[in-house]
Predict the 3D structure of the following.
Amino acid sequence: MQTVSQLDPLRDVVAVLKKDGPLALVPTMGALHEGHLTLVREAKKRAAHVAVSIFVNPRQFGANEDLDKYPRQMAADSALLQAEGVSLLWAPTVEAMYPQGYATNISVSGVSDGLCGAARPGHFDGVATVVCKLFNQVRPDLAFFGEKDWQQLAVIRRMARDLDLLEPKVDAIIGVATVREADGLAMSSRNAYLSAEDRARAVALPDGMRRAIAEVRAGAAIGGALAALQSALLANGFSQVDYAQFCDASSLAPLTALTDAPARLLVAARIGGTRLIDNMAA
């Protein structure tokens, strides 16, 4: 595995790798867990080489969010990727990604407006900007993202379509199903912030979501099921529910009833100072 942190050598390495066939990219912010490694394994099935980026992107963190304490463990992450047979680790510095005088921002309207977009103003501008740069830097044929960040995946797909990125393959951005712990909690780098007590209580999130989906599918009103979900989370140690919504799976428009069209239940809630997000097919 080659590790590169500056743009000029990156382009040289990428040019050599792409001679062997398709190159897949797995963008991450590091602190890798089984969810990330699952993306790598899926990418290896579809491409001759896999590149993984590790970059803790300051532009997607708000003023009072966890940029400074976000886990950074480059040596451990590098060893994991080496063991998985990754060909390239792209680990740019902040200065390489955003050189002095940087002044460009990408905003994707519509799919980024509600949910985490409303709770974290500017977050998806930062996501869209850095992912667009990663696509232009690595020039992958395919890119893999976890479905746990469903809204992020929707934003990236919309941006790629609108800006003709990873063309002409309309299915070049591949979502991979959320990887969960044995008790159902979605894997996340932020789970490391949870105390033992809060970690045990956090399972109320996926449990409550499955219950809400079952209730609505059995005929319950969406409003009542969501109110019960929020009450259950607060009763089980969550301090705040940022949102809990049934949405159209593609447009993320809020739903007042389920139909045969694909839908998702998306939730963000806080426990012990940690913000957890999750989504499930409804």
Q: What stands out?
A: The chain has a mean pLDDT of 96. Residues 2-176 form a domain with the Rossmann fold fold (CATH 3.40.50.620). The chain has two domains: 2-176, 194-276.
